[in-house]
Design a protein that fits this description.
By secondary structure, the chain is an alpha/beta fold. 21% of the residues lie in helices and 25% in strands. The N terminus is likely disordered.
Length: 775
């Protein structure tokens, strides 16, 4: 599994009672598959002490005529909190028989996810945490953070990393119910007062790979990280400070996580072939039981209804227990409607750049010098020009430098110009090296625009933007004796403009619920330095024999744990806040201007960004600590939201585990949810009206006034225009009326604006996205 941007699309294939997805018994094959089985808990017979006993009995009652091993235990997982049901290994006959039971509401075939693949504290204003915590002493801050536990579902952890040093940390909170599991390459003694939990969940993966129940699994079953991604995300969220950290000399400085005094627990749910839904759900289930406060998932679900999205289902159960859940938005940008993890109870995180860069240069034979980026750390090319080649019209896609596409006779001893796309950037360099090339220029295409992502290449390589790439392509095409020399410039700070929305960051609009604006925010996700696994080289390629304690990676996988760590900080400062209050604080205080005081730019478009790319904006933890007002939402609010989607009772029961709920009280429109942003779909209507409620978390006697920035073609009216909060914790409602002006539908398809509540101390900003029809 390559250690690059982690992104996957989850689409659980629901097998309803009327579905023909299951083969008839006459066509049955003995091969078993993993199914997630949704049970009606109200029908558990009283003779069974626990639901687990009931599940076992239900499976034991199945009969099969297949040749599969009837002695093996079909039960893979018995879920307790995240899901009403279990995961089991079944053949077609068994699945068919189980569907005939009145206690089974549905079966879902297990599906595969793929993962979405240090200066960040300074960039976010966290140089010293005492500067962040106005009104909190250093002792109060440290103690509060020591009580916060972040659970990370990923590829595991490299426990020996200095980022998990527990020096100075007090005893583990007594409420913690987790543990460190043993494995052939992992001892529980490797955990400590910092890394307080490490578990692995592999039954879905092992079942799919054919080694479940075998004597020797293909991959050691333990929490140890053989990929690097999990160690990177865990340490980004809450790594301990490590001085003089770098990737082979790049980005030298002190590496630390967003909440360096918080505790962490690693849940390994991703393996060589990816991440399976049954394992992910088991990891969430166990993390809830263990007692985490924050869950961080740098992997994605797809654009599926919430009742068919494993992460949305598990996250709903976590939020019910007061756990904040952050997920990566995905790396399928800049394509519209490419988002993952769009449930409103999840914090959906996009990616932006830092003010740090790793410059590299290409000097061509025509004396032109172009700038790019690189993390190459080996021996340079020297100063002598080298032949430069580009295979534009090759039938073998040699311009993309796919494996096997380059002819060594044409490449040996030369620099190759490769177009970005299709395969991993570092793999392109390996392909060039294996064909005898001595260097590579990696040129962006229109899809990636001017976004530059630095990589630890195996040979001298420089990545350049689309404009520069087009100039180099033109040069190579016009000069049969084209040459190039590549050189490298180390680390540069205070880059302007920054942040910029990353081209790869997935975009809205939200296709699952158009009335919920996603992503929620962006955070640092480009060229992020964090801890790394010593089991694999920094490029993530099997051929990379280099070893490093830290690595630089890019992706929404990297931005997600930044927000998870910041949520832990807010949880420590405000333990009484709900997950939705923490989310609101991060959203309404986010900024939408860069360090040049210009609007945020989009790396792919080369123009200004919009809320479908950056959501509410880039997180600002200093202001999020004291947001003034928050948009809070309870479980009952989310139930009303779900009821407004016209799901069936059985579909709702997948998400809403407790019995006795009903939809007599539901929102007339999903957009009535008390969300910190607005997404308005006019459709055939000219008027849309929403009511929101604000809770005062600032001072008593606070007074706020509203200002509105309406998109062209829309009138926005807010009533009242002034809110007075006499007490802390007091709630006040306001109503917003959106009116589409005559002719606006024909003049524009969409637009953006904002609604801001202000007083001298605070600015509580909500982005507004308007669409006249489906896009």
């Amino acid at each position: 599994m390559p250690s690059i941007f982690f992104f996957c699309f989850l689409l659980l294939q629901c097998i309803s009672r009327s579905s023909s997805s299951l083969e008839s018994p006459n066509n049955n094959v003995a091969k078993k598959k993993t199914y997630i089985v949704h049970m009606n808990h109200n029908q558990k017979p009283s003779i069974y002490p626990t639901h687990h006993d009931w599940y076992i009995a239900s499976l034991q009652s199945l009969s099969t005529n297949s040749d599969s091993d009837s002695d093996s235990d079909p039960l893979l997982y018995s879920y307790k909190t995240a899901y009403n049901g279990f995961a089991a290994s079944l053949d077609q006959n068994q699945a068919q028989a189980l569907l005939g039971s009145g206690s089974v509401l549905g079966l879902y075939e297990d599906t595969l996810y793929q993962l979405h693949t240090t200066r960040t504290p300074e960039f976010l204003g966290l140089e010293t945490q005492t500067s962040l915590w106005a009104g909190h002493s250093t002792e109060d801050l440290g103690q509060a953070l020591h009580d916060v536990i972040i659970g990370v579902l990923d590829t595991g952890v490299w426990p020996e990393s200095r980022s998990f040093d527990d020096a100075g940390m007090p005893k583990i909170p007594a409420r913690w119910r987790g543990e460190c599991e043993s494995g052939e390459d992992f001892s529980p003694k490797l955990c400590n007062k910092k890394l307080i939990g490490a578990r692995s969940f592999s039954r879905g993966f092992r079942m799919a790979s054919g080694d479940f129940g075998s004597g020797k699994p293909k991959e050691p079953v333990s929490p140890r990280d053989k990929d690097g991604h999990g160690t990177h995300t865990v340490s980004t969220a809450a790594g301990s400070p490590v001085a003089n950290a770098s990737l082979l000399g790049y980005a030298t400085g002190t590496a630390r996580g967003m909440a360096p005094q918080a505790r962490v627990a690693a849940y390994k749910v991703c393996w060589t072939d990816g991440c399976f839904a049954s394992d992910i759900l088991a990891g969430i289930d166990r993390a809830i039981e263990d007692g985490v406060d924050v869950l961080s998932l740098s992997l994605g679900g797809g654009s599926a209804p919430y009742f068919r999205d494993t992460i949305a289902i598990g996250a709903f159960a976590a939020v019910e227990k007061g756990i904040f859940v952050a997920c990566s938005a995905g790396n399928s940008g800049p394509t519209k409607s490419s988002l993952a993890n769009v449930a409103p109870w999840i914090m959906t995180v996009g990616a932006g750049t830092l003010d740090r860069d790793f410059p590299a240069f290409a000097v061509l034979g025509n004396k032109k010098r172009f700038s790019g980026v690189s993390l190459y750390s080996g021996k340079g090319m020297g100063a002598e020009p080298v032949s430069l080649v580009y295979f534009k019209n090759s039938s073998k896609s040699s311009n993309i430098c796919l494996p096997g596409s380059l002819d060594p006779a044409l490449v040996r001893g030369k620099v190759v110009l490769c177009d970005r796309g299709m395969n991993a950037r570092v793999e392109k360099g390996r392909v060039v090296r294996d064909a005898g090339g001595v260097g590579m220029i990696l040129a962006n295409t229109a899809e990636s625009g001017e976004e530059l992502v630095a990589d630890s290449h195996l040979l001298p390589a420089v990545a350049v933007g689309r404009i520069v790439g087009d100039q180099i392509r033109e040069y190579v095409g016009s000069d049969p004796r084209a040459t190039a020399v590549l050189s490298f410039g180390g680390t540069v700070l205070n880059v302007r403009p920054s942040p910029i929305v990353a081209a790869f960051s997935s975009r809205g609009p939200n296709t699952v619920t158009r009335q919920i604006l996603k992503p929620d925010v962006i955070g640092p996700g480009v060229n992020i330095l964090a801890a790394w696994s010593e089991a694999i080289g920094p490029s993530g390629l099997a051929q990379d024999t280099r070893k490093t304690n830290f690595n630089i990676m890019s992706g929404t996988s990297m931005s997600c744990p930044h927000i998870s760590g910041l949520a832990a900080l807010l949880k420590a400062a405000h333990p009484e806040w709900s997950p939705s209050a923490i989310k609101s604080a991060l959203m309404t205080t986010a900024y939408t201007h860069d360090n040049n005081r210009s609007q945020l730019h989009d790396a792919a478009l080369g123009s200004f960004s919009n809320p479908w790319a950056h959501g509410s904006g880039h997180v600002n933890p200093q202001k999020a600590l004291s947001p003034g007002l928050v948009y809070d939402a309870s479980t009952s609010d989310y139930v009303k939201f779900l009821c407004s989607l016209d799901y069936s009772q059985e579909q709702l029961q997948i998400l809403i585990k407790h019995s006795g709920f009903n939809c007599t009280k539901k929102f007339s429109d999903p957009g009535q949810l008390n969300y910190p942003s607005f997404s308005v779909i006019f459709g055939d209507k000219r008027v849309v009206r929403y009511t929101r409620r604000l809770t005062n978390v600032g001072d008593a006697g606070s007074v706020y006034r509203v200002t509105v920035d309406a998109p062209p073609g829309v009138s926005i009216t807010v009533k009242p225009t002034r809110l007075v909060f006499d007490k802390v914790g007091e709630r006040k409602a306001y109503t917003v009326t959106f009116v589409s002006n005559k002719g606006a539908k024909e003049a524009a398809r969409y637009g953006f604006g904002s609604i801001v509540w202000r007083n001298p101390q605070h600015q509580v900003k909500s982005p507004v996205a308007i669409a006249w029809s489906a896009l």
